[in-house]
Amino acid sequence: MLNIQNLSVHYGMIQAVHDVSFHVEEGEIVSLIGANGAGKTTILRTISGLIRPSKGSVTFEGKTIEKEAPQKIVASGLSQVPEGRHVFPGLTVQENLEMGAFLRKDNGVKADYEQVYQKFPVLKERLSQDAATLSGGEQQMLAMGRALMSKPRLLLLDEPSMGLAPIFIKEIFSIIQEIKEQGTTVLLIEQNAKMALSIADRGYVLETGKIVLEGTGQELLASDEVRKAYLGG
After folding, report:
1. 79-106, pLDDT tens digit by residue?
2. What are the E-state strand segments in the chain?
3. I need a surface site. Which of 137, 146, 173, 214 has the fewest CB within 10 A?
């Protein structure tokens, strides 16, 4: 579904991503783990069209997209939940969800609102509330719900557990699994390596902009190298 080949990204003279290649198959959860500053967010932003690569290709469902505008990439079926949530302050929960459906012209929008409310019941309770007044966990749920309203076939999640209480983290990861079971493929960027790999079909380890390890989620969880670097073992 998603194929990244020999991707390199620069910020001015600084190279943040070095010749990275990986793929995501339809129906998978793929986790990309690594320390802060490893290049994970840069890769997601490049896939979403927010950053242009200096080299390499990004192919989504057989179509090269690394030169496409972000809104065209969203319309093609790929949506990102950004690090830090970035809900729209001054807009209600309902209005934030409407922004997620902004590019849609089909008749299924109303039914999809109901699906989002089923996944995130707290959002239905807060529909007329300013999104900025939600707790961190509730804002994360809203950001995920907003992305799902674009009806993506591939969902990119950037650090969904960051800054959340343990009870919210558990709930968010449970919902990620549910999203996959309902037919949406997921590329998950996470510093919480144990949680990310425990739900992943496959994973990649990124260090200083390079992929240094890959395998199934369980293989990486069992790896001495991963345990020492990311799991405190």
Report:
1. 999 988 889 999 999 999 999 998 888 8
2. 2-11, 14-24, 29-33, 55-60, 63-64, 78-81, 154-158, 185-190, 202-207, 210-216
3. 214
